[in-house]
Design a protein that fits this description.
Largest sheet: 6 strands, mixed
Shape: globular
Family: Belongs to the phosphoglycerate mutase family. BPG-dependent PGAM subfamily.
Helix content: 25-40%
Pfam family, one: His_Phos_1
Structural class: alpha/beta
CATH topology: Rossmann fold
EC number: 3.1.3.73
Keywords: Glycolysis, Isomerase
Enzyme class: hydrolase
CATH architecture: 3-Layer(aba) Sandwich
Strand content: 15-25%
Length: 198
């Protein structure tokens, strides 16, 4: 089984350096261009299934890359692959958060794995949500399937950690670039990372 993990193109929020979870910003001009380039990179890959998060930036990216009128591809919006909910930090930048939530921000730096974003989601709940989502997709798929997931940086990190056996500890070992895809080959009891940020 081949699994292609796609991060949406850059958004206006990304360009401004904002924490962007459930708060949606439109794709920037750079992000739209990234998606067009990504479409050409994926032209020769035959897919059976495409899953995408509920966030508008992921849906716009999926729409730019894939032909939703195709009867040969199964499409599904899946909330398991939404970005983490940053709560009160959503839409704020590093300077604002580190100044106005200094104690909480230090707790996040000290151990992100046990942190719960104020009025948002805990990292553990987020990771478990994504992990369960990817396990379910693998469970209902065939060995010969080629599957794409259009999602977010945090979501893709969580999937990579889960499938490659890093668990929470490996979350910040990957940089996931906008408008790029990563590719894994999945076997019965293991996964191999073939491509990162192409």
């Amino acid at each position: 089984m081949k699994l292609i993990l796609i991060r949406h193109g850059e958004t206006e929020g990304n360009h401004k350096g904002l924490y962007q979870g459930v708060k949606d910003y439109p794709l920037s001009e750079k992000g739209k261009l990234q998606n067009l380039k990504l479409k050409s990179k994926l032209d020769n890959i035959n897919l059976n299934k495409v899953y995408y998060s509920e966030m508008e930036r992921a849906k716009k990216t999926a729409d730019a890359i894939f032909d939703f009128s195709s009867s040969e591809i199964y499409f599904e919006e899946n909330s398991s692959f939404n970005e983490i909910n940053f709560g009160l930090w959503d839409g704020r930048d590093y300077k604002y958060i580190s100044t106005n939530y200094s104690e909480q921000f230090q707790c996040f730096i000290d151990d992100f794995k046990i942190f719960k974003f104020p009025e948002g989601e805990s990292f553990k709940d987020f990771y478990n949500r994504v992990s369960e989502g990817i396990k379910e997709i693998i469970k209902v798929s065939k060995e010969e399937d080629n599957i794409a997931i259009v999602a977010h940086g945090g979501t893709i990190r969580a999937i990579l950690c889960e499938l490659l056996g890093f668990s929470y500890e490996g979350f910040y070992k990957f940089n996931i670039n906008h408008g790029c895809y990563s590719l894994l080959t999945l076997y019965k009891d293991s996964a191999v990372l073939e491509v990162l940020n192409k």
